[in-house]
Structures are given as structure tokens and as C-alpha cells.
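Box 3.1 A note on notation
Throughout this textbook, protein chains are presented in two layers. The first layer is the amino acid sequence; the second is a C-alpha cell string describing backbone geometry. Keep the layers aligned when reading.
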Amino acid sequence: MMSDLPNILTLSRIGAIPLLVLLVAIGAPWAELTAAALFAIAAITDYLDGRLAREMLQLSDFGRMLDPIADKLLVGATLMALVGFGHLPGWGIYPAIVIMLREILVSGLREYLAEIRVGLPVTRLAKWKTGVQMTALGLLLLGAGGARILGLGLLPMAWIGGTLLWLAAVLTLATGWDYLNAGLRHVSAPRPTR
């Protein structure tokens, strides 16, 4: 179970978090580039673990439980590191707060709905939100220093990443609202008596 390749990929996302935070704390251009590369690899494992689990017929309850936890830990730690070490552009804390609150909301909804044996499927819009969010965070981690190393120093990474983070926050609100409505339908539905 834990030694299945999809689960190893999921666990690697969690394992990458301390190094990612350390690299953001260092803040040197080489560290920014390394943090962005590490985050990109972690984001790719988010895509690969589920796909490989389906293709290799290695679906497990452990993987279904751990995958969203690993995603939220990675995104949450990255957002906190960017905020804590001053790597977000002006007003960037607001979309970060919206994203964090939505992650907590959806986690709570999933936990409650699991108790009553109701699934909360991932929507197409939520997948777009994740893509925009991961791109934004990767660019914000890259920063100006990392961009200069890649020869992209003329691109305003903070502005591009910050704009995408705001777009991710808007998508986050929309998908959070969808999930909340889906959850409330189940909360208010009459339950069969025994």
C-alpha cells in the first residue's frame, strides 16, 4: 500500500515541504530557482499519482485519503512561506487567505460528508483552479532572482504570479461556493429513520 508508486509520489509531496520552506527562507536567486523547480516537480506528482494509480490498478483508501491532504499541505505551506518571508506582491495576502480558507472549508465538508457516506467529486472548474493556483505559486517562488538565472529577468514574475494568484482566488471562491452548496444539500436532506 504505502510502497505503491502512486502513494510514494503522494508522500514525496509531503516530504518536499520542509526543503521548500527552507529554500524560500534562504531567498537567494539560486534558492528561488530551486524552490520553483521543487514545487513544479511536486505539482507534477499531484497529476501523476492519481493517473498512475488508475492505470496500474493501485487505487487504495490510503491514497484517496492522503492525496488531498498532501495537496493542501503543499499549497498551505507554500502560501505561508511566501507570506512569511515577504515574497508576495502588494495585496497578495488577500488571495492567499481566500485560498487557505477554501481549503479548510472543503476539507471540513469532505470529512462531514464522508461520515454520512457521500462523496464530493472534484469539478472541472476545481481542476482549472488547481492549475492556475500551482502556476501562480511556482512563478511567485521563482521570483525575480530565479527568473534572472533563467534569462527571464525582464518578465515581472511578481506581477504575473500575483495576478494569477488573484485569478486562482476568484476560482477558489466559485468552487468553494459550489462545494458548500453541494454539502448543504446533503446536510438539509431528510435522513432515513431506522
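The longest helix spans residues 157-188. The chain is about 80% helix and 0% strand.
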